[in-house]
Amino acid sequence: MSAIKTISSTPFSDQKPGTSGLRKKVTVFQREHYLENFVQSIFDSLEGFTGETLVVGGDGRYYNDVAVHTILKMAAANGFGRVLVGQSGLLSTPAASCIIRKYNAFGGIILSASHNPGGPDGDFGIKYNIGNGGPAPEKYTEAMFQRSKEINTYKILDAENIDLNAQGRYTLGDMLVEVIDPVTDYAELMEELFDFPKLKSMFRSGSFSMCFDAMHAITGPYAKQILEEQLGAPEGTVINGVPLPDFGGGHPDPNLAYAKELVETMNGISAPDFGAASDGDGDRNMVLGKRFFVTPSDSLAIMAANAHRIKGYKKGITGIARSMPTSAAADRVAERLGINSFETPTGWKFFGNLLDAGQCTLCGEESFGTGSDHVREKDGLWAVLFWMNIIAERHQSVEEIVTEHWKSYGRNVYSRHDYDAVDATVAGDIIDNLRSRFVSLMGHGFGAYCIEKADDFSYTDPIDKSVSKNQGIRILFTDGSRIIFRLSGTGTEGATVRIYLEKFEPNEALQNIDAQEALADLIDIAEELSGLKAKSGRSGPTVIT
Ligand code: G1P
Ligand code: ZN
């Protein structure tokens, strides 16, 4: 019998979960008792899990293996009855969500810092998902944080590590550990939603080619199995398909700046028809056509407008939810379809209640996140399969599909400018300063633009009526254009200031314009309003998407 040890510890003051769980440098997680304190704080803020099932897995980044063993021993010591863990401790975020739901687990712990770099000097993260498979809502994360500030002991089983490299059933104290294939359940779900025979014949006929960049992150094994093995895409369709603890030194964020190899391929003369990438933990996606970029906001709108063509969504969609900074392109689709549309704060956790209540079917964020009610996380590979299925049904190129959409609905020209690692005090002051000027800004004109309203976005959840305040500074112009200022809740170095810019272009003749060009005036206004460049000493954004 392995003994349960109760270890004394002192609280850390910085274990406040952000937009998506607790994210810190690996070196912070390596501090003695740091991980254990937070895991115990999670368990202490939950009730009724004795004998229940917990799902555990992560994106394979540096420290994933160490953390998984610790969590298994702590789950056993705290009374869980069973843990389902992905082989080698791996599970993508959407697969973890799928498994929690499929096996009616009590919840899950996912180890990931998403798109942040990994390795000994990189980032690590831990997040808790509840029984619906989705990120723990704020009332949970707040309870975890409160607990972390007073915790003085944690419980852990004194036992050897079990072998996670082989699938099978093991025991750890009184707890059963099932090491499962990380891909199978997820692949089965994808097969239910999409027309696999049609996708297969599209590859077989040679009428369609694609490149999927797994960025040396978790979707490698998922994409290889689904795209190459099940759908018959030629070997080599998946690039950077082997997950590495440091993502090969890259930044596993699927955007135009970081998915370099894919972007070069898609800009080349012999570009395939379709390009896609996913992030560190597999929940984000970027989709590209030949020399053509689809903004995530447009992607959500186009997926919604075409959902009726897709096997799993033929019965119709009930509504579309988007985060506040995401463009309003999806709202236009919802309006035409006569279905619900919701504007939530940034972060996937705000979609959970709406999905559970059947109020919406599709959700999306401008930050390369799209998903549906099939799980309770955003889902990278799902979005890629959704797009492949649209292409298979419409027999058109990505560019044709997008430009036809603009023609029909108008184009919400959109861009996000990120300023990374800004001095936190400077960033805080910029936001506070904007916040203090809401009243004086109303009615203020800038050339052709006039501010109709300025506020700090606040959200009341339509289902549980919980209120989330201070979710981003909105500068709303009379013509529907918007500038949003927000501080990132996922960064680990200084502050990341995000500026979101949006302008509606109904005129077809003007729609094929470069977004930065179309938004040039708004970009200038953003600087005039915030003084961000001047105050932070930057000449421009770190990343433009
Ligand atoms: C970022 C994105 C947000 C997303 C989150 C987790 O959060 O902007 O949309 O939900 O990562 O992937 P932020 O750093 O802006 O707080
Ligand atoms: Zn992610």
Describe the structure.
- With 545 residues, the chain is of the alpha/beta class.
- It folds into 3 domains: 3-182, Alpha-D-Glucose-1,6-Bisphosphate, Chain A, domain 3; 186-409, 3-Layer(aba) Sandwich (Alpha-D-Glucose-1,6-Bisphosphate, Chain A, domain 3), CATH 3.40.120.10; 411-544, 2-Layer Sandwich (TATA-Binding Protein), CATH 3.30.310.50.
- The strands form 6 sheets. A 7-stranded mixed beta sheet has the order 2-6-5-3-4-9-8, sandwiched between helices.
- The longest helix has 15 residues, at 380-394.
- The N and C termini lie far apart (55 Å).
- The model has no long low-confidence stretch (mean pLDDT 96).
- Residues 93, 114-115, 279-281, 283-284 line the site of zinc ion (ZN).
- Zinc ion is lined by residues 93, 114-115, 279-281, 283-284.
Structural class: alpha/beta
Tell me the number of helical segments per DSSP (H or I, 4 or more residues long): 19
Number of strands: 27
Radius of gyration: 23 Å
Mean pLDDT: 96
CATH topology of the largest domain: Alpha-D-Glucose-1,6-Bisphosphate, Chain A, domain 3
Number of individual domains: 3
Helix content: 25-40%
Approximate strand percentage: 25-35%
Trace the largest sheet across and list its strands. Answer: 2-6-5-3-4-9-8
CATH superfamily of the largest domain: Alpha-D-Glucose-1,6-Bisphosphate, subunit A, domain 3
Overall 3D shape: globular
Provide the CATH architecture of the largest domain: 3-Layer(aba) Sandwich
Q: How would you characterize the largest beta sheet?
A: 7 strands, mixed
Bound molecules: 1-O-phosphono-alpha-D-glucopyranose, zinc ion
